[in-house]
Automatic annotation (TrEMBL):
Domain of life of the organism encoding this protein: Bacteria
Name of this protein: Uncharacterized protein
Membrane listed as a keyword: yes
Transmembrane domains' residue ranges: 6-23, 30-52, 58-77, 103-122, 184-205, 212-231, 237-260, 272-288, 294-311, 323-344, 382-400, 412-435, 447-470, 498-519
């Protein structure tokens, strides 16, 4: 525990100091870089140590000291250049802060908003405190993969079928799992990722124009939150502890924001640090999910298009080539360096990036493959998919108009279109398999970047249209609103002292919350949410997970049908290997001799087991039954 807390403290402090160096006068930018630097350091340290099979707690501490020192020394040596990142300070940040009346109004409206979503916030606090992973993917694949890496001290062992997927999300989970040997911090990690994603959404909204008043931006963002939190699928994402969708969305949005910032100033010392951070963010994203390549390809295509359209015979061709090479080195190189390990590992272990059976079934269930099927539009979220197609076409028409001159808005629309294409191309985006049966259910979590960017655009354009309407029909009302906002603000220059206090308070609160959570956490008995085993409604609750946790320690378990995470047993003492579905399992006696226990359940989708497995359970040679109920059985090897 001490090693984990010290490692986390060093990462948090170094990230906080670095962010205030980069953005001494912009608290929102500073906070976003603080969060992303913290997650970046965690990712790089665990990736580096895991690649050389040295995932020891003590080395996490040494790695945090080394990387944190390197980042701070680099920034101190180049502080004059790096401060150029801050030159795009927006108008409201320097001159239109809320006055006392403005703060009272802001607090009152925020309180009403929080009251409306009070139950959601209460449930989220419980989820963060008790850490009960609720997703089948998480307890079957993501967290078991992280435990496999932890037990093998490296990232080279594939524990289950989907361990072939990049493990960037698991790297973040490993940061606390390795030294603590429990999942106490996963709830806070998930909360930070969700809040960080919303913060980047706020930054994207803020950069769409020069906001005259701080509160006008706040009310627009409140409209964004109201829409975002009213969607059931986005609410679920807050509770999806351990899943990689929000992690991917955070890095893609951060990379997109940094890329847009790089276009705002042609000065090299300003542009390329932003472009570099965009590359780092997209590298982290590609190290989490392979579908991040769609976003990268889209951004790269737009960058090349901008380069070509800005071509002028007056400028030497060498200058354009120099810019092109700079993009390659500054943007694509970080992407390749951060993400390539996972794909090279698979190439070495499997002979290919992914096994065909893993990819093919998912591609067949992408939205793009089923776009003209009526069934997908009749399914849950089908109407939202249809609405998304309509909105995307409207936005494309909007930015195609030459009279439309808001450059930042055009760039965000382009990112939105890219994210829509990425969503419909993503495997399993159209639904999921339940055994051999296909269920259409467009997965908004796979299109989270699209959902966020389209809500940003809808919120901004809605208020813009309202303003245009009042400007044409009733300027008196618009004048009254402007005067009201004017009386709720005061002119004020932002000082570095306020920014340092703001970030230091956030850093201190993070450390205190982490300390309280780790000290007070009690691992749950069993696997909450999964004691029913079956996916369809069942009143019967199995106690197989509780029994395994109480009776099996430091053993090798072959798992058929159960969620692996419920069998590893804190402090992750059991080594669990998945053997596929019990409905299709075939006896391989030689393999059985490698395991101390065999844990079996009915197939969670069909409630059945194979005939060969049924025959084996009737007369288990070399094993004896030590636990059984209506849905599961545990056998112990006796020879």
């Amino acid at each position: 525990m001490v090693v984990y807390l010290f490692s986390s403290l060093i990462v948090i402090l170094s990230s906080a100091i670095a962010s205030t160096i980069l953005f001494p006068q912009q608290p929102l930018n500073c906070l976003a870089i603080f969060i992303s630097l913290t997650l970046f350091q965690i990712t790089i340290i665990t990736l580096t140590l895991g690649a050389v099979n040295l995932l020891y707690p003590s080395l996490l501490l040494i790695g945090s000291i080394a990387l944190g020192s390197f980042i701070l020394i680099t920034l101190f040596l180049n502080s004059n250049k790096d401060k150029l990142l801050s030159i795009s300070t927006t108008h409201f940040q320097k001159h239109a802060l809320p006055n006392q009346k403005g703060w009272i109004l802001l607090i009152a409206i925020t309180s009403i908003f929080l009251f409306c979503f009070g139950q959601l916030i209460y449930d989220l606090c419980l989820q963060v405190t008790f850490v009960h992973p609720l997703s089948w993917d998480v307890v079957t694949y993501h967290l078991p993969s992280a435990v496999t890496y932890l037990q093998s001290l490296g990232l080279w062992k594939l524990g289950n079928t989907f361990s072939q997927y990049p493990g960037g999300n698991e790297l973040i989970n490993l940061w606390s799992l390795i030294p603590l040997k429990q999942d106490a911090a996963l709830g806070l990690t998930s909360l930070v990722l969700n809040l960080g994603t919303l913060l980047v959404a706020l930054l994207l909204l803020r950069d769409l124009k020069q906001w005259k008043y701080n509160l006008s931006l706040y009310f627009t963002f409140l409209l964004f939150l109201l829409i975002y939190l009213s969607i059931n699928d986005t609410q679920v994402i807050f509770f999806d502890i351990g899943r990689n969708d929000v992690t991917l969305a955070f890095w893609v949005l951060t990379g997109s924001w940094a890329w847009m910032k790089s276009l705002q100033n042609k000065k090299v010392s300003f542009r390329y640090p932003w472009l570099f951070w965009s590359g780092v963010s997209f590298g982290c994203a590609l190290g989490i999910k392979p579908n991040a390549i769609y976003y990268i390809a889209g951004i790269f295509a737009i960058s090349i298009y901008n380069l070509i359209t800005n071509y002028s015979p007056k400028i030497k061709r060498k200058s354009y080539l120099r810019v092109f090479y700079k993009i390659l080195w500054t943007w694509l190189l970080p992407i390749a360096m951060i993400s390539s390990f996972w794909y090279l590992r698979n190439l070495y272990l499997l002979g290919s990036f992914f096994e065909d059976h893993v990819v093919k079934s998912g591609l067949n269930l992408s939205i793009s493959r089923n776009l003209f099927s009526l069934e997908i539009y009749k399914a849950p979220n089908g109407r939202l998919l249809l609405f998304s197609i309509f909105i995307t076409l409207l936005l494309i028409i909007l930015i195609s108009n030459n009279q439309f001159r808001n450059t930042n808005l055009k760039q965000l629309v382009k990112i939105n279109v890219i994210s829509f294409i990425a969503w419909i191309l993503t495997p399993y985006s159209a639904g999921y398999y339940a055994g051999e049966i296909i269920y259409f259910h467009p997965q908004l979590r796979h299109g989270l970047v699209y959902v966020i960017t389209v809500i940003i655009l809808m919120s901004y354009l809605s208020l813009t249209c309202i303003r245009i309407f009042f400007n044409q029909k009733s300027r008196n009302i618009l004048s009254i609103i402007d005067n009201l906002f004017h009386h709720l603000h005061k002119e004020s220059d932002h000082t570095n002292k306020i920014n340092y206090l703001f970030i230091s308070s956030i850093a201190a609160a993070s450390v205190i919350l982490l300390l309280i959570q780790v000290i007070n956490y009690n691992p749950p008995r069993g696997l909450p949410g999964f004691s029913g085993i079956l996916f369809y409604p069942s009143n019967y609750r199995s106690h197989v997970y509780e029994w395994v946790q109480e009776n099996i320690k430091n053993k090798r378990i072959l798992n058929l049908g159960l969620r692996s995470y419920g069998l590893v047993n804190f402090p992750f003492s059991n080594e669990v290997t998945d053997a596929g579905s019990p409905a299709t399992w075939r006896l391989q006696e030689n393999n059985l001799q490698q395991y101390d226990y065999l844990a079996v359940s009915v197939d969670p989708f069909t409630g059945k087991i194979s005939q060969e497995l049924a025959a084996f359970l009737q007369a288990p040679r070399g094993y004896k039954i030590v636990y059984s109920d209506q849905l599961s059985v545990v056998l112990k090897r006796i020879s």
